[in-house]
């Protein structure tokens, strides 16, 4: 059924149709079904102005009747039958019934007041279907934001949620680690988990371990635990020393407070990209036994610690694939998280190496939203599709769709929804996804507008790759200093304490964009008819997502304009004061919208740092205008 965002496995058309009555009777014998039925009732009221009443006296008669039937095999399977006299749902589990209602909600969006009769038999491709959201690089969502997001993800039949934590948690034994980052409290974690449980989602802990610990190691009290201080512009480097018992004790301290909060039996220990491995304090051991063996020994020790806490260790697989001869030595319960974020990434086919070794695997694509204001939509679609196809062929355990926030996390949350939904569709029933029409179905199902909005999403999604082969160029060009080489502006930019801050040299993305492509981006994204108005009765979360799209579009325009200004200035061409001051004025206006949308969804955290970068960019243009 092309009208459904999350495709169903088997659909058989039946004769006739069912029209929703003025008052809809919703019937179930299980109290747990109240939540999804309330969701359906809210949709019927919002979209069709229908009232609803509920009946809990057994499996009686009604317009929608839910029955538990052990003949429906599968923990998440269901059968949904639409007949002229009503809708019958059969499932053997609460989760199956929940997912059946989600499909019925989508049928209402697709067909309105009259549903074509049909029978749907449905179940997922993958056991684990998750989203991984970065809360570690400056943008920490309000708990209510995450609850609203969880409801959308569960509606798309995802059953796992992870948030990336480096230091954004309040540890009693190490209180300095989370200061200044709007960190989550233990009660916050429990509240998020309780909401996940309501919607049949596992809330899996994920904590940066060994690597990506630059925020902890820049604190003087912890710098002695570093592998190699001073690299990548960080006082303490980015990773703990893998051979230092004191460093491992710090990890144990953090785990002892953090991990017991979670009910899930899995834990993502991360351990990706240990850039200094074997180059600092562990060099002697690495020279003796090899870097791969140093890494394996650390993971084996961490695996034993996780097992004592009753958790199954999940680990990013990038470093393991560098030393494939060590794969057979991993315990068979270690879940390998094989990630690659390119549509034709070289690690995608290497999923087979883990599967052949008898290790459980999750394939891990990404939304291609980080280091972009919008997204690199063609890459994101290809990345998910290719990884899901490989995962099905290798019989993997699941798919975890990642969404990061490198360099201050300016990328808006709403723009990532397309990627989440597309990943969810491929994780549930990939053979039923039509990538060519998915964006149109997404715009219709989520925002009630399949025409103009779908076109706008495609236009924004194409800009990142249109300007330069490195689709991150516009993201960095928005705030990159125009005047190079290093001057006081560049020095001031580098002093801004952004999470994941820029290294010693800026990426020089201003010079990378092709002028004709930059001008085309500006023309396309400044069209007054590009972004349609929100449809009537659109929920607040989706209304904010549309505002996120407009913000991303405005940031790309300013980044393209700054690239053209910067290229002209660096070539020695005169840029008029009016153009420079106009850009600065536009940036000042954008900052107000950026701050407003941030505060609606997120805690303060590193908002001030992002605003300071933007302010410096505007200030530089004004100073250049004064010298013209």
Commentary on this structure:
The protein is α/β, with parallel strands linked by helices. The chain has 3 domains: 10-122, Chitobiase/beta-hexosaminidase domain 2-like (Chitobiase, domain 2), CATH 3.30.379.10; 128-432, Alpha-Beta Barrel (TIM Barrel); 455-627, no CATH class. Helix content is 44%, strand content 14%. It contains 20 helices and 16 strands. It has helices spanning 34-48, 94-111, 143-155, 186-198, 214-217, 245-258, 283-289, 291-308, 318-322, 351-356, 377-394, 417-429, 435-447, 452-467, 473-477, 488-495, 515-525, 540-570, 577-601, 607-627, and strands at 10-19, 23-28, 51-55, 64-68, 78-83, 86-91, 114-122, 128-134, 160-164, 202-203, 206-209, 266-270, 312-316, 335-339, 361-364, 398-403. Strands 10-9-8-16-15-14-13-12-11 form a 9-stranded parallel β-sheet. It has a 7-stranded mixed β-sheet with strand order 1-7-5-6-4-2-3, covered by helices on one side. The longest helix is centred in the last third of the chain and has 31 residues, at 540-570. The N and C termini lie far apart (61 Å). The relative contact order is 0.09.
Which characteristics define this entry?
628 residues; alpha/beta; Chitobiase, domain 2; TIM Barrel; nine-stranded parallel sheet; 16 strands; 14% strand; globular
Please sum up the structure shown.
The protein has 628 residues and is of the alpha/beta class. It has 20 helices and 16 strands. The model is unreliable at 499-505 (pLDDT under 50).
Distance between the termini: 61 Å
The multimeric state of the shown protein is single chain
Biggest sheet, in brief? Answer: 9 strands, parallel
Kindly report the spatial arrangement of strands forming the biggest sheet.
Answer: 10-9-8-16-15-14-13-12-11
- Structure classification: alpha/beta
Computed CA radius of gyration, to the nearest angstrom: 25 Å
CATH topology of the largest domain: TIM Barrel
The low-confidence runs, each spanning 5 or more residues with pLDDT under 50, are: 499-505
> Which term fits the overall shape?
globular
The CATH architecture classification of the largest domain is Alpha-Beta Barrel
Average pLDDT works out at 94
Q: What is the strand content?
A: 5-15%
Number of helices: 20
Can you give the helix content as a percent range? 40-55%
By CATH reckoning, the class of the largest domain would read Alpha Beta
């Amino acid at each position: 059924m092309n009208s459904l965002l999350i495709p169903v496995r088997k659909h058989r058309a039946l004769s006739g149709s069912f029209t929703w009555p003025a008052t809809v009777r919703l019937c179930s014998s299980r109290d747990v079904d109240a939540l999804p039925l309330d969701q359906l009732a809210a949709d019927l009221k919002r979209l069709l102005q229908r009232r609803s009443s509920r009946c809990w006296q057994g499996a009686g008669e009604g317009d929608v009747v839910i029955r538990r039937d052990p003949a429906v095999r599968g923990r998440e399977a269901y059968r949904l039958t639409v007949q002229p006299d009503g809708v019958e749902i059969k499932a053997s589990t609460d989760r199956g019934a929940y997912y059946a209602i989600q499909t019925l909600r989508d049928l209402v969006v697709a067909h309105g007041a009259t549903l074509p009769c049909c029978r749907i038999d449905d179940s997922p491709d993958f056991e684990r279907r998750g989203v991984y959201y970065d809360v570690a690089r400056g943008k920490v969502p309000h708990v209510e934001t995450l609850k609203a997001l969880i409801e959308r993800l569960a509606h798309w039949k995802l059953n796992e949620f992870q948030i990336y934590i480096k230091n954004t948690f309040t540890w009693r034994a190490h209180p300095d680690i989370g200061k200044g980052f709007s960190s989550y409290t233990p009660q916050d974690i429990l509240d998020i988990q309780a909401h996940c449980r309501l919607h049949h989602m596992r809330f899996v802990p994920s904590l940066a371990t060994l690597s990506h610990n630059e925020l902890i190691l820049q604190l003087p009290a912890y710098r002695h635990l570093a592998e190699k201080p001073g690299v990548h512009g960080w006082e303490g480097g980015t990773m703990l020393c893998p051979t230092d018992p004191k460093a491992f004790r710090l990890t144990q301290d953090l785990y002892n407070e953090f991990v017991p909060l979670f009910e899930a039996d899995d834990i993502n220990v991360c351990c990706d990209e240990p850039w200094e491995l074997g180059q600092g304090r562990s060099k002697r051991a690495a020279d003796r036994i090899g870097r791969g063996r140093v890494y394996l020994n650390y993971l084996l020790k961490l695996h034993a610690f996780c097992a004592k806490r009753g958790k199954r260790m999940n680990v990013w697989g990038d470093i393991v694939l560098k030393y494939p001869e060590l794969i057979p030595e991993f315990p068979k319960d270690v879940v390998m998280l094989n990630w690659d974020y390119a549509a034709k990434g070289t690690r995608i086919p290497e999923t087979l190496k883990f599967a052949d070794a008898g290790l459980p695997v999750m394939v891990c694509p990404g939304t291609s939203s980080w280091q972009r204001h919008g997204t690199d939509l063609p890459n994101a679609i290809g990345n998910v599709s290719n990884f899901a196809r490989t995962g099905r062929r290798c019989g993997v355990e699941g798919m975890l769709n990642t969404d990061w926030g490198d360099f201050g996390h300016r990328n808006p949350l709403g723009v990532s929804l397309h990627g989440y939904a597309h990943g969810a569709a491929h994780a549930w029933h990939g053979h039923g996804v039509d990538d060519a029409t998915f964006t149109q179905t997404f715009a219709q199902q989520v925002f009630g507008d399949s025409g103009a909005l779908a076109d706008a999403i495609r236009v924004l999604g194409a800009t990142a790759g249109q300007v330069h082969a490195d689709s991150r160029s516009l993201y960095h060009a928005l705030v990159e200093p125009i005047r190079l080489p290093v001057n006081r502006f560049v020095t001031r930019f580098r002093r801004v304490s952004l999470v994941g801050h820029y290294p010693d040299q800026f990426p020089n993305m201003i010079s990378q964009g092709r002028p004709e492509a930059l001008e085309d981006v500006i023309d396309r994204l400044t069209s007054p008819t590009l972004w349609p108005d929100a449809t009537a009765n659109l929920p607040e979360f989706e209304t904010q997502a549309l505002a996120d799209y407009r913000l991303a579009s405005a940031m790309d325009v300013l980044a393209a304009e700054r690239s053209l200004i910067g290229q002209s200035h660096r070539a020695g061409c005169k840029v008029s004061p009016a153009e420079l001051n106009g850009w600065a004025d536009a940036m000042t206006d954008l900052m107000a919208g950026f701050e407003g949308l941030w505060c609606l969804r997120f805690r303060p955290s590193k908002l001030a740092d992002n605003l300071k970068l933007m302010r410096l960019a505007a200030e530089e243009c004004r100073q250049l205008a004064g010298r013209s």
